[in-house]
Amino acid sequence: MKERLEELKQEALNKVTAASDIKELQEVRVSYLGKKGPITEVLRGMGKLSAEERPVVGQLANDVREAIANELNQKQDQLEKVALEKKLSEESIDVTLPGRPIPTGGPHLLTKLIEEIEDLFIGMGFQVAEGPEVEQDYYNFEALNLPKGHPARDMQDSFYITEELLLRTHTSPVQARTMEKHEGRGPVKIICPGKVYRRDTDDATHSHQFTQIEGLYVDKNVRMSDLKGVLNAFAKKMFGQTREIRLRPSFFPFTEPSVEMDISCKMCHGEGCSVCKQTGWIEILGAGMVHPNVLKMAGFDPDQYTGFAFGMGPERIAMLKYGIDDIRHFYTNDVRFLKQFHHA
Ligand code: 2NL
């Protein structure tokens, strides 16, 4: 019997050593230490032994059980440890790897350009003012020295909603409204960016909806030289310090005198090229001294107050700045176009 027990012990220990995973080990445990196992069987046969031998064999059987159990537990710990290490190494994350970029959208080229222009004027003391896109005939035309029947307020060129309501054709009505709110007291120093609408057939240079930025400075003693100084500073900051400006006489119903501003051509330095159509100059904006009628209608005394105003088209500025050849690119929203101006 003793030999049988020793044999069983050796057999069991060998199987424990050979077990390569926890499941196999559990099978060894059940088959050797279970109720139907060979050791239990040996113990059952102890009745045949003498009174002296019985405790000796009983003790040995217990020792064998214990030895096998110890070995099983040790092996179990070892296998669990190996399994854990394997799991950890498989699931490990390299936190130093660069992240995968998530594609993002961004502000439209025109939005960014408008904000850039706003910032330049904010830097010169202007405030940003906004107003409605559905406007009263009064603020869009009447208050800007364009009375009913004036040739420059062609019904065919505007989107009328009713007799008295239309989609604004410029952002000037925002300026008229702002002046009115000041109740005849200066200074008013604002720029008005926004969408405007004209009944045009869309082509490479025309759009029925586009954007505008207008500026207005009304106070005592505002002069033409103030206009020139502000516009010169704007042009140099926007297009580069080496650019020159020039003012040419022009006409707008809401300014007198009126001018148009050109900047010197960067491509040919004034020599003449295709960009500037051989003139050396590129037209950028229109401006002038606010017409006395406009001041009067907004509640300002034209004998005490003067002002300058200007207006420009961000699309035209962007087209010149980035060499964009078709105004429709701004509104088609083809990402291949938009992406060129999006830097995450
Ligand atoms: C252009 C020319 C201009 C104005 C806009 C203005 C507004 C008020 C009073 C007087 Cl409230 N003038 N605006 C003046 C001159 C020119 O725009 O070519 N824009 C794209």
Portion in beta strands? 15-25%
Main beta sheet strand tally, sense and closure: 7 strands, mixed
Instruction: Count every beta strand, where a strand is a DSSP E run of 2 or more residues.
Output: 9
The succession of helices and strands, N to C, reads: HHHHHEEHEHEEHEEEHEHHH
Total domain count: 2
CATH architecture of the largest domain: 2-Layer Sandwich
Shape: rod-shaped
Q: What is the helix tally?
A: 12
Question: Could you describe the 3D structure shown?
Answer:
The longest helix has 39 residues, at 53-91. The chain is rod-shaped and about 135 Å long. It is built from twelve helices and nine strands. It is α+β, with helices and mostly antiparallel strands. The two termini are 83 Å apart. Strands 1-4-5-9-8-7-6 form a seven-stranded mixed β-sheet, sandwiched between helices. Strands 2-3 form a two-stranded antiparallel sheet. It has two domains: 2-90; 109-341, Bira Bifunctional Protein, Domain 2 (BirA Bifunctional Protein, domain 2, 2-Layer Sandwich). Helix 1 runs parallel beside helix 4 (53-91). 2-{3-[(4-chloropyridin-2-yl)amino]phenoxy}-N-methylacetamide (2NL) binds at residues 172, 175-176, 212, 214, 216, 252, 254-255, 285-288, 290, 294, 309-313. 2-{3-[(4-chloropyridin-2-yl)amino]phenoxy}-N-methylacetamide binds next to helix 7, strand 5, strand 8 and strand 9.
Task: Tag the structure with descriptive keywords.
344 residues, binds 2-{3-[(4-chloropyridin-2-yl)amino]phenoxy}-N-methylacetamide, 41% helix, Phe_tRNA_ligase_alpha1_bac, BirA Bifunctional Protein, domain 2, two-stranded antiparallel ribbon, nucleotide-binding, ATP binding, 12 helices, metal-binding, cytoplasm
